[in-house]
Design goal:
Layout lengths: L4 E4 L2 E4 H20 L6 H8 L3 H8 L2 H15 L2 H14 L5 H21 L3 H13 L5 H24 L6 H19 L1 H7 L9 H18 L5 H12 L2
Helix pairs in contact: 1-2, 1-4, 1-7, 2-3, 3-4, 4-8, 5-6, 5-8, 6-8, 6-9, 6-11, 8-9
Length: 242
């Protein structure tokens, strides 16, 4: 028996796949609002417009549903970031000098900031990730291994190359963590900034996205200038090493 299909944006999509997609999209908002521990399977099913049995059929229960939602977010919000990370890694294999590595880091940070501010589901993804950082659940390994660690590591390698040191240098890791936080805080703290700047609405104009990206990019460039405090501290720490 052939699977029933429906038209979706000009393509024939199996109805089961369409239902699964709808469940994943509904799960993003539900888990972002309530968290995996606070929301029950009946509420999740109601949010998706299905019965509880459908969640068990497609995902094996609430935990499987949550993990599937996390993977869905990684494959949607994280796609552009992964592509930028892969391009940066390819450039790093050519062993760029410090100035070139700084430019690569600026480019990557600009992409990261733009993605977290503009991609669909980015706000919900930030809520889910923030909750996992504060109260890790069964999904923490997925969030860390597939979303946070790859980004953190590429920032660290770019930072180390810009500093002229190795990626396992603690100072490189600390600076990379600072930069990762700079991108994250514009998403996590969006409503604080919105209130401070008296913005209306929940969406940023492209002009403001560009201004924020310019701010982060400029900060990175200044951080690695020859007279920056970070560069001076790194030089001092190398001098003190035995």
């Amino acid at each position: 028996m052939k699977a029933r299909t429906t038209k979706h944006r000009g393509k024939s999509v199996p109805r089961g796949d369409q239902t699964r997609q709808r469940l994943l999209e509904a799960g993003i908002e539900a888990f972002a609002q309530f968290g995996p521990e606070e929301v029950g399977i009946r509420r999740l099913a109601a949010a998706a417009g299905v019965n509880s049995a459908a969640l068990s059929y497609y995902f094996g229960g609430k935990e499987g549903y949550y993990r599937a939602v996390l993977r869905f977010l990684i494959n949607t919000v994280g796609r552009s970031i992964r592509e930028a990370a892969e391009a940066a890694e390819k450039s790093l294999r050519r062993q760029p000098d410090s100035a070139s590595a700084c430019q690569l880091l600026c480019q990557f940070m600009r992409t990261l900031v733009t993605v977290v501010l503009t991609k669909p589901y980015a706000e919900a993804a930030a809520a889910i990730i923030w909750r996992e950082l504060l109260r890790p659940s069964s999904g923490f390994s997925i969030v860390y291994e597939r979303m946070i660690r790859p980004v953190h590591e590429v920032i660290t390698r770019l930072t180390a190359a810009a500093m002229g040191t190795q990626p396992d240098d603690p100072q490189a890791v600390l600076l990379a963590h600072t930069l990762w936080g700079q991108a994250a805080i514009f998403r996590l703290g969006f409503h604080v900034l919105r209130r401070r700047l008296k913005w209306r609405g929940r969406r940023l104009s492209q002009e403001w996205v560009d201004r924020i990206a310019d701010t982060v990019e400029g900060m990175v460039a200044r951080l690695f200038s020859s007279d920056s405090p970070a560069e001076s501290e790194h030089s001092r720490s190398r001098t003190l090493l035995p």
